[in-house]
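Morning, I've got a small favour to ask if you have a moment. The fold is given in discrete form, as structure tokens running alongside the sequence. I'd be grateful if you could look everything over and explain what you see. No rush at all, and the record is pasted right below.
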Amino acid sequence: MRSSLIPAILVGCLVIGGCRSSGPEEALTLAPSQEVTSAVSPVTPPGSIGSAAPQVETAAVQEAADQARPAPHELAWSGNVPQPQSFQTGPMDVGMPVPSNRPVAMLVPDAPDLRGPSGKRERVYSQRFRDAKPMNFGRITPRHHPVHGVDVSRWQGNIDWPKLRTEGANFAYIKATDGGDHLDPMFKTNWQRAKAAGVKRGAYHFFYWCRVASEQAEWFIRNVPNDPDALPPVIDVEYNHQSDCKRRLSPEKIREKMQVFMDTLERHYGKRPLIYTAPDFYKDNLQTAFPNHPFWLRSVAAHPSKIYPGRNWVLWQYSGSGLSQGVNEKIDLNVFYGSAEQWYRWSTARPGSQIATR
């Protein structure tokens, strides 16, 4: 009975009160809390809303609202960007010290050891990778770091994960999603086989600048399992000259979109995402930005301390032309900045743990 009155009330409002739908300009004044709620809304279980009548009323109001709502705004956010909500902590220096500073122990309280089926710590394998385009990095080289790993996508084909692990892949970041509708066809296979081989693995998302950030976060969450043993998720931000998205947003809008995406993932997975980036994109958009997020830096021609001065980092991608048994194609090679002990503590941090290095 109550549901039949809703359309009439709405029509009366439009005729008498001069009600109208808000346009994109008015949408920009929405409170940040409204956008946070709408970014990724959990599905309410059937029967938990109340009686049948309120559900019908809600559906009618929602139908009217959907008809009046404008198309999704091309940017990521409406209003001021809120601060991350998963961890209510003070400012932290997240990331690893640059080589001029001596590494210190990570402050992860009661982090469990990384243990295999035998109950013992998983072995850290020394890397036996080769490089089709070897580079002289000077005094500090990738070999100074004990924990090496890889990142992979469909282009590496069918990977022999047990073999790749013994070659030195102690961790792997696996391409999961791209934009808001693309799933790497090898993601599920790589995700399952890497874990079965004892490789610590995480998933990364390639960010598409012509799509709303909240939609991209929803797509990632839909396709990447919330595995407490997984490494923190990664947002890959860089210029892609082969993309059909030719837009160059301002640094402020780029950081705004990134913040929305990262906050949504952090709320869902309980782990602060890493930011993967390349030199040109970093220089244009990310210098001094996101001091409380860990960084994964691409630097294949020089040490990161020269390309990203002053920036702390957790992972360094030092080659895009790696060669290894277990994979037929070239593969990206990476190192973790820190000792094997620091690696154990970082890679086994549970959801909700805040990580710092000083």
